[in-house]
Amino acid sequence: MLKMIRIAIVITYLLIGDAGAVACVVLGDSIALGVGRVATECTTMAKGGLTSAEILAPMEREQGPAIVSAGTNDRGLENTAENLRAIRSKIEGRAIWILSVRHLERAIIRVVAQEHGDDTVSFVAAPHNLPPQSYADIAENVRNILRTRQ
């Protein structure tokens, strides 16, 4: 009987997968807030309009995987790269960066992600460039990365 229960559990797991099983944290600005509302399996620590310095200031150590949207609201501030590196230094484990639609910030985020071997995801912006057309698409891209690169 116990063997049958174990087999049923394994079959159930294989059929429904682990979509809700990925524990993660979403950190950052309004983009992170939107993603966190869709990625309900994650804890969300985000607020609209935050710069990378404002995201960094209250941060404690975070266990990865962490999905990070930071830098978009910096708009050319000189400390963006240093702030993003400091944010990354507080994440233990994996980080997945959401790339900005703004070219300068996008390039800086990409460099910081590459320095740490982190994955990045991008998104299609709404007609006026922000916010994303689909937070669900970003969340699904993150889930796919988490599933395939464990």
Could you give a quick summary of the protein structure above?
It is built from six helices and seven strands; from the N terminus they run αβαβαββαββαβα.
Topology at a glance:
Elements: H1 2-16, E1 24-28, H2 30-38, E2 42-46, H3 52-56, E3 62-63, E4 66-69, H4 80-89, E5 91-92, E6 95-98, H5 103-116, E7 119-121, H6 135-148
Parallel strand pairs: 1-2, 1-4, 3-5, 4-6, 6-7
Main sheet attributes: strand count, strand direction, barrel closure:
5 strands, parallel
Count structural domains. 1
The residue-averaged pLDDT reads 84
CATH superfamily: SGNH hydrolase
Q: Might you state the CATH topology name?
A: Rossmann fold
Q: What radius of gyration results from the CA coordinates? A: 17 Å
Report strand order across the widest sheet: 2-1-4-6-7
Write the element-wise H/E pattern from the N-terminal end onward. HEHEHEEHEEHEH
Helical stretch count?
Answer: 6
**What structural class should be given to the helix and strand makeup?**
alpha/beta
Q: How many strands in all?
A: 7
Can you tell me the overall shape? globular
Distance between the termini: 33 Å
Which regions are unreliable across 5 or more consecutive residues at pLDDT < 50?
1-21
Strand content: 15-25%
CATH class: Alpha Beta
Q: Using the 3D structure, state the CATH architecture.
A: 3-Layer(aba) Sandwich
Indicate the percent of residues in helices.
Answer: 40-55%
